[in-house]
Amino acid sequence: MGAETKKSIERDFIMYDEDFDYLRKLAYEFTGIVLADHKKDMVYSRLARRLRVLGLTTFSQYCKVLEKDDPIEHSEFINSITTNLTAFFREGHHFDYMRTVVMPELIKKHPGHHKLRIWSCASSTGEEPYSIAMTVKESNVPRTWDVKLLATDLDSNVLQKGKDAIYGYDRVEGIGDERIKKFFLHDKSDHSSHRVMVKPMLKEMIAFKRLNLLESWPMKMKYDIVFCRNVVIYFNKETQKKLFNNIANIMPVGGYLFIGHSESLTNICDRFELVGRTIYRKIN
Question: How would you write 26-79 as a 3-class SS string?
Fold first, then answer.
């Protein structure tokens, strides 16, 4: 890298344009996330912690560490740059539609036995899959049903938080006292009662697994309901097309797909029809 071509962000660490270019190329290779020029400050702030942990002084040094193909540091890199913004019953109209339309439709179609399979593609710290599980419980599915949720994420750190299922009370107080009483317990290890734990009735429904959406998927089942929200905003159009086509492949005709509030399948995938606000049903 020629010194005369380098520009740096004047902070604790030196980051040159060449460093950022390498990091965003690696981010795309690992995750499919496209990091535009204006994301440079975000990348800096998220990776600065890794430089401190490793005792480095420049991002050029950190790039050399990543070049060594160390799977542990690659995982730390992925965990650092992926966004994990979530909340219980975020975009509440999705859960309302699931409870009032999707679940009654499935119950009518399968009044006896049914293997209900639901996938939360970007489960983050678990609020989304637990919200889905609560919605299923509130829908009074037949006792004979076999209900399982798959919760996946690229970030192994947030997946562990989802498995632990312990949340600050401020995270759940907005869902209402009735739901809190029905689905949560006070964390006995927290004498201040500022934390709650998800009850086993929900935890036993969910399997948390690390998954890169751009790699091969191990799932063999068909999923009646898929939540893939606020994921593809980071992907380019070709990656979006591939992802939604793959999702369609593991869903039955009539299955429901929920995507993020700023996302759309228009000119991306024609295997779904729009049936609600960012809600789609598979047609072929």
Answer: HHHHHHCCCCCHHHHHHHHHHHHHHHHHHCCCEHHHHHHHHCCCCHHHHHHHHH
